[in-house]
Amino acid sequence: MALETLAAAEEGSRKSLADVAYESIRDRLLVLDIKPGELLNDEALAKSLGVGRTPVREALKRLELDRLVITYPRRGTFATRVDVTDLSFISEIRAQLEPLAAARAARVATEAVRQQLRAILKDVEAFDVAAASVTETLRLDARVHQGIYAAAANPHLEDILIRYDNLATRIWCMVIDRLPDLSLHVHEHVNLLNAVIGGDEDKAAELARVHVSGFERAVREALFAA
Fold it and tell me: Are 90 and 188 in contact (CB under 8 A)?
């Protein structure tokens, strides 16, 4: 789950306007600021972002590949809908690939990368879930998962996992106000990061699997309790 702001993008002059538009619109989709099923108006988006319509259209094409939007001829582009079936399909994929990434990261990460993961671990340990906003919580969750994906040093695996983590984030946002104990979910990352940093492949894989299954179970309980 990656939650960069447009202001932060201004610091990275290397980013194209299409990249800026993509990240901003993606983040609005992830936190459901743009609701599932909502029509996306490229002219309005361009105006709100301070860019032209061409970068926005390029961004929407990328977001369609990410399955975050869908375009219908003569109707326009809409945010994709989210339902319980999506949760099952997404969790099935993540349950296979998250352990693979965690185990690979534990095995191949360089010392420099492990040091980066230690910095993330320190932030997780200090994180106050009760005082944090939803966006801050999602941003930390994204840092953990994407840090591990990057540490696995397989760009194809990383790309797939980021895509499905983003889809999972949208589902999480639908029920986040009904989840009983977010601190448990957040702090599960501590043991996972420690296993990856310590090079324990089997433990890292198992903790990743438990984390994904726990996420699915908690979201499903929240959905059916509603």
Answer: no
Cα-Cα-Cα-Cα torsion 212, 217, 220, 225, nearest 10 degrees, comes to -150
Q: Alpha carbon of 153 to those of 64, 70, 89: distances in Å?
A: 26, 30, 25
Residue among 95, 80, 97 nearest 160 (CA): 97
The token pair that represents 104 in the structure block: 């690979």
Q: What is the pTM of this model?
A: 0.85
Three-state helix/strand/coil letters over 16-42: CHHHHHHHHHHHHHHCCCCCCCCEECH
Residue 202 CA neighbour count, 13 Å, CB half? 0
Q: CA–CA separation, 63 vs 178, rounded Å? A: 28
Instruction: Note down pLDDT in tens along the chain; length 226 residues.
Output: 444 444 444 444 457 999 999 999 999 999 999 999 999 999 999 999 999 999 999 999 999 999 999 999 999 999 999 877 888 999 999 999 999 999 999 999 999 999 999 999 999 999 998 888 888 888 899 999 999 999 999 999 999 999 999 999 998 888 888 876 777 888 899 999 999 999 999 999 999 999 999 989 888 888 777 5
Dihedral angle at the C-alpha atoms of 211, 217, 222, 223, nearest 10 degrees?
A: 120
- Give the helix ranges, DSSP H, for the chain: 6-11, 17-30, 42-49, 53-65, 84-108, 111-126, 134-151, 155-175, 182-197, 201-225
Q: At CA 166, angle to CA 181 and CA 200, rounded to 5?
A: 70
Q: Over the Cα atoms of the chain, what is R_g? A: 18
